[in-house]
Write a structure and sequence with these properties.
This protein folds into 2 domains: 295 residues, Carbon-nitrogen hydrolase (Nitrilase/N-carbamoyl-D-aminoacid amidohydrolase); 326 residues, HUPs (Rossmann fold, 3-Layer(aba) Sandwich). It is 39% helix and 17% strand.
Length: 653
């Protein structure tokens, strides 16, 4: 079964009939059926949904409490054979007291009862008038099956529900106010291993509360590195004093996966990535785990978490995970990244008492971004832009388009422009090493890149400056850099910026630039194919396009993100890539470049092991001093083998 570490969860808000358990039971069964048809494996209902939350002193009525218990048993029977874990709310009498309880139901039985710990007794809430806190409680109660057979059920604060068939699936449950207190029960549940936290809630709606509630749920999921499923009371509750909106939320480590519109009554449904949560906890050294408490753990077994080769994945898989889809957020991110890059460079220049910045400018995206960052760094330091020495070094593959863009951009930004043709020096070098200049092999290409770096380093010595590196994160991941050529600098400002983000940073600068001529140059650079321009042009145009050789950068950035950020295996990355690029790349193309990525990533680690300093801007980076401590001679066989097995499966289909 191919579930790829996902589980579909649902938060529902059935229409409530106040104090009518039979009507509520029917409404809940209807909602459960819809959730199951949608693929839901964990279905969460609101607080006290079997009776309604707004009963006030009717909770004192013995008949109501007994009918609620019967309704619970009947609801549990309905889960027989569904392979679904559900949570429902009701008032429950235990040892002479009444508790606000969440009941977990699975395969025809109630498998646990979790009492609410923190009872609000302020403003419009008076729960302490009717209920007793469940803090510290633990014992057994007996419920009945459809045939009348009694069976024991654990009644306890902080119960965990552990799926014995799926290692990373442990569910913790709390009720409404439990989330709002400083030390939420869910915090302790997460530390005991819960990866999914559910909340049965009845949170009334007042101005501004929805945003606060959403932030609270998101923050708790981030703090506990968990998925949080929040089911809120909605239509039908008494409007004597307040109104409920049915604000259902599913959040995974601060990412909103789904949210129901207020007052809509809609179900929230999303796929939680258990692998992502497990990986985050493993790599976050400060996430403190505590000893497992078997006395507060209920075991159950899902037969399956679903076959995602057949089911639709209910979550967004962005094709560019490094680039926010929302324009406003993207612009904010771009401004922040440019500032990080520029301030890092400014600090390095200031610390070394450097007099200048030296950069090789080609008319391509990477050197353009580095140039813009260098200008920003000098502006921060209130230094003359003439302290930026931009060197264009035409070679065998330089085209008029890139040359003129490089020269014009430098002039428009007010930097000092120098032009040095590398052709004579490289030809002499070919003569020295007895290399045929008509042989356009790797020596032909790399000699040009190293000659350029040689010139930049000497100019930096000559002017008391620093060479600013231009290579980006994607190139470093693929090893698409000449060792001791463009691979080397004195400070690499783009070292943790992936190619897909480089493009958006340059576009953002162009969009916010007030100089029309500079804008036009930047837009033309954005339209220019990515190329190292090391091979002679054809008919005056670029003959060597990087993506024809190494593959689409958007795919490689996608692979890089999930390899380094979450440590996913190839088959899961392949599955996610098919979701993200369904209308753009076929399966064979994705597999071709996925295999290429793994081969290059492992084979080229030696280049990353000796990278110059550079600022980290995002959660994925390859600096050997920080994020990626990897042996240069690690073997890629098991990853490549899994890609080959996927290719074999594809050929058999």
């Amino acid at each position: 079964m191919n579930n790829f570490g996902f589980i579909k969860v649902a938060a529902v808000s059935p229409r409530v009939a106040v104090a009518d358990c039979k009507e509520n039971l029917a409404a809940m069964k209807k909602e459960l059926d819809q959730a199951v048809k949608a693929g839901g494996k964990i279905v969460v209902f609101p607080e006290l949904c079997l009776t309604g939350y707004t009963l006030q002193d009717l909770f004192y009525q013995q008949l109501l409490v007994e009918e609620a218990k019967v309704a619970l048993e009947m609801f549990a029977w309905e889960t027989k054979g569904l392979d679904v874990l559900t949570f429902v709310g009701l008032p429950f009498a235990y040892e002479g007291k009444l508790y606000n309880v969440a009941a977990a139901c699975f395969d025809g039985r109630v498998i646990g009862l979790v009492p609410k710990c923190f009872l609000p007794n302020y403003s419009e809430f008076y729960e302490a008038r009717h209920f007793t806190s469940g803090r510290g409680k633990k014992g057994l109660v007996y419920l009945k099956t459809r045939s009348g057979e009694e069976y024991p059920v654990l009644f306890a604060e902080g119960l965990l529900f552990k799926d014995l068939n799926h290692e990373n699936l442990i569910v913790g449950c709390e009720i409404c106010e439990d989330l709002w207190v400083a030390d939420s029960p869910s915090t302790q549940m997460a530390k005991r291993g819960a990866t999914i936290l559910v909340n049965l809630s009845a949170s009334d709606e007042i101005i501004g509360k929805a945003e606060y509630r959403k932030n609270l749920v998101a923050f708790q999921s981030a703090k506990t590195l968990s998925a949080y499923v929040y089911a809120d009371a909605g239509k039908g509750e008494s409007s004597t004093d307040f109104v409920f909106s049915g604000h259902n939320l599913i959040v995974e480590n601060a990412t909103i996966l789904d949210e129901s519109p207020l007052f809509s009554g809609q179900m929230a449904l999303a796929d939680v990535d258990l692998d992502r949560l497990a990986n985050e906890r493993r790599r976050t050294g400060t996430f403190e785990m505590v000893d497992h408490d078997p006395s507060r753990t209920v075991d159950f077994r899902f037969a399956s978490l679903g076959d995602y080769k057949k089911e639709t994945l209910k979550r967004l898989v962005p094709p560019m995970p490094f680039v926010p889809a929302d324009k406003e957020q993207r612009n904010k991110r771009c401004e922040e990244i440019l500032s990080i890059q520029a301030l890092g460079l400014a600090k390095r220049l200031s610390h070394t008492h450097g007099k200048s910045l030296v950069i090789g400018i080609s008319g391509g995206l990477d050197s353009t971004l580095a140039l813009l960052v260098a200008v920003k760094a000098l502006d921060y330091l209130k230094k003359d832009r003439k302290d930026l020495i931009a060197v264009t070094m035409p070679g065998f593959g330089t085209t008029d388009r890139t040359y003129h863009n490089a020269v014009s951009l430098v002039e428009n930004l007010g930097a000092e422009l120098r032009e040095i043709s590398i052709v004579p020096a490289v030809l002499q070098h070919f003569k020295d090493i007895n290399h045929d200049q008509e042989n356009h092999d790797v020596t032909y290409e790399n000699a040009q890149a190293r000659q350029r770096t040689y010139l930049l380093m000497d100019i930096a010595n000559q002017t008391g400056g620093l060479v600013v590196g231009t290579g980006d994160l994607s190139e470093l991941a693929l090893g698409w850099a000449t060792y001791n050529g463009d691979h080397m600098s004195m400070y690499g400002v783009n070292a943790s910026v992936p190619k897909t983000l480089v493009r958006h940073l340059v576009r953002y600068y162009a969009d916010t630039c007030k100089e029309e001529e500079t804008q036009n140059i930047l837009f033309d650079i954005l339209d220019t194919p990515v190329s190292p321009e090391l091979l002679p042009p054809k008919d005056g145009k670029i003959s060597q396009k990087t993506e024809d050789l190494v593959g689409p950068y958007e795919l490689h950035d996608f692979f890089l993100y999930y390899v380094l950020r979450y440590g996913y295996r190839p088959k899961k990355i392949y599955y996610l890539a098919k979701q993200a690029y369904e209308d753009k790349y076929d399966s064979a193309t994705i597999l071709k470049w996925l295999r290429s990525f793994y081969w290059r990533f492992f084979a080229q680690q030696f280049k990353r092991s000796c990278l110059p300093d550079g600022p980290k801007v995002g959660s994925v980076a390859v600096s050997p001093r920080g994020d990626l401590k990897m042996p240069s001679d690690a073997i890629s066989r098991m990853w490549i083998d899994e890609v080959f097995s996927l290719q074999e499966e594809l050929e058999e289909e």
